[in-house]
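Cont'd.
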Amino acid sequence: MLRRRHLLSKLGVRGCNTVQVAALSAAAFLLLGAGNPATRFSEIGHQMMCICGCNQILLECNHVGCPASDGMRTELMASLTRGDSDSLVEQSFVQKYGPTVLADPTRDGFDRAAYIVPSVALILGFSLIVLVIRAWKNHPAPAVANGQRPLYGAVLEQFRAQVRKETNL
Amino acid sequence: MAQIGSFALLLALACSAYCVVAGIVAIVRKREFAVPLAETARRAGIATFALVFLAALILVLAAFENDFSIAYIFHHSNRDLPAPYKFATLWSGQEGSLLFWSLLLSAYGLVLRLRYKTDVRLFAGASVVIAVVQLFFLLLLTFAARPFALIQGSLPADGNGLNPLLQYPEMVIHPPMLYLGYVGFTVPFAFGLGALAMRYPGERWIHITRRWTMVTWGFLTCGIFLGAHWAYSVLGWGGYWGWDPVENASLMPWLTGTAFLHSVMMQEKRGMLKMWNIWLVFATFWLAILGTFLTRSGIISSVHAFAQSSIGDWFAWFLAITLIAFVVFFLRNKSQLRSDHTLESLVSRESSFLFNNLLFVLLCFTVLWGTWFPKISELVQGNKVTVGAPFYNRVAIPVALLLLILTAVGPLLAWRKTSLESLQRNFLWPAIGAIVVGVFLMITPQSWGSPFGLKPWQDISYFYSLMAIALSVLVTLTVASEFYRGGRVIAKHALQPLFPSMVQLMHRNTRRYGGYVVHFGVVVVIIGFAGAAFNQDTEQEMGYGDKMSIGPYTLVCRSYTEDDAANYASQWAVLDVYKSGKQVDTMTPERRFYKASRQTSTMPDIRSNLDEDLYLVFEGLNPANGHPILKAHLNPLVMWIWIGVWIMLIGTVLALIPNARALVRVPVPARLGPAHAEPAVAGD
């Protein structure tokens, strides 16, 4: 809060208005087309599955005479034309056809694990590699069979610079 | 004929079992009879190939001779089936495809057993492991999925025919390629496990299997993309990858196999990551078997899956046994797998390989997790959920983009340590090039067509596309700079033009520069994938003279008609394609009804060019008025995918070519001492 006040006092009233106008314009620009039923039909229709057993996205089901997809598409368009929100449309489809109608898991309950587990795996993996690299870096140099010590530090850097210079790399 | 086939499989089973038992005894009991015993095991392995080959030949002949007394032929062939598809009958059903798998495994085993003099002991160990896997498949063929089972009752006049979706030229080569890939990963696994079990010292197994692994990887890559092309050309939904569990099953071993191809270089050059590599090669083999389990057990629903059957249990047991056996050998002998060196710097080729491996394995884990999540959800909360393309796009694409960054940076890093100064120097121009291309794509007008006029803030898919294209440019420029800098050194010393120097450079270290060509192929494929963000489609009923517009194209229905051939009846439409008011093509999307199987199939017509594919599907006839219903897709940049795959395969072949001897030698100053007086060779 203090930080915000400090920022506002720095910008002044005029600067503050400019920021607000810019933020509103950006929001309006970003949301442009979001309420268009055709756009929403395409977006939501690609987040649902046809339930005829073809395992295809609703709007990609290409069976003529498919017992499910035509009706589902009509139903989806009717919901959007009525002005139902995205979540309401999804809820009504889930109630009618079951949770498998959604093309990906929801962000509720156990379904969240579908998204959390890969992210946690990524973070753990990165942490593990950084720890391994640190451990290896601090590890003493391994012994060489003929008793020679490997080159390290400034001497090694000197040879590296020399090789680069001589090979023009 | 069926009896001969069954008998051949039974004999093969006996030979394989003998190969396992005699091979193990010969390795374990090091007495005077061990050598002749090992030789008999080797010959039994060779005999296994001959017998399995005979069985496969009999099944193919039965298809050509319309021997419908064999249940497999009755279910998967018919009299009017064209000859190439009769040949493909071998792998079009469950039993036949298992026989085909067994045949390929025995063929790989044959090559291995013929080349045993390379390293008799190590090859004997690998031969036993291969024989164990072979034994499992032969047990399946003998007891659970018998390809020569006979029809009960009266002999049918004709067969049920081949699945219409499989009656497409690519289907004659897609499964063999995929299987060559799947089965081929058994070879590095066999050498790895053999070396581990025998406590075989050194990196010998890695050197021996390097080419095997690359060839296998090439086959698997080819198989996966042939499958994608088949899906695109036949299934008629306008896409090439649907994240179906069976597609995922082929992708998982490819991802771990690719990780192995990278990390194995650390073991070869620096003696590092030995434990990791043995686990990776095992995971690749295991995932290939898991994929087979997925397709055949019916445990996960998929449009590709074979019918649900009891052989899923066999695979589950085999997977469990191989896992336990591997873990036991690993725990007993892991002291053999200590690293020779440690990592010196975070900014080095080694660390880039570590992160590269992490991302490949993470991608594989994500795909595995997504594939199994419906089952896990069912077990935990009692109801299934769908994990479709939106999930994978959301989770896997960011990881793939990170991988692309590493693909760009990795080649610029030196082994052991790279100075930030040199990284900055080498990376600056490629990075500027990528940023310029990214900005150019954003500021150009959308009327130029896809992917110009990209506004990444409008949609996350546009953002991903922009990133993918910009990073692809980055990778391309770093690869080009690698060729240029290496070529320039040779050109300077050999006093010859740059291009021949670059060719010479490549010939001197084919593995490294072939690998770069593969990387370039990958970015071309990625650019093709990036086009998916701009896909459009429309559907319309088309009477005579009706028009449909999509993107820059206008389609006019000239005619629609029907035809009747021996194998199928078809309905098709003739459409004139106009672009900017000028006729550019005539297209004929088709729908077929296969008589024997009484199934329908779409044959989309695709007009491909570098910019975009116009993809037309004949969906059927409106029963009310008989007018055809057509769906048109406009898919930008798809052709880049197929071009990229060719480049990847060319790169793989280049990487397999033996290195040429160096013509240019750069003498190392004498002050380094006699122990270091080996001439340094540009390009090495």
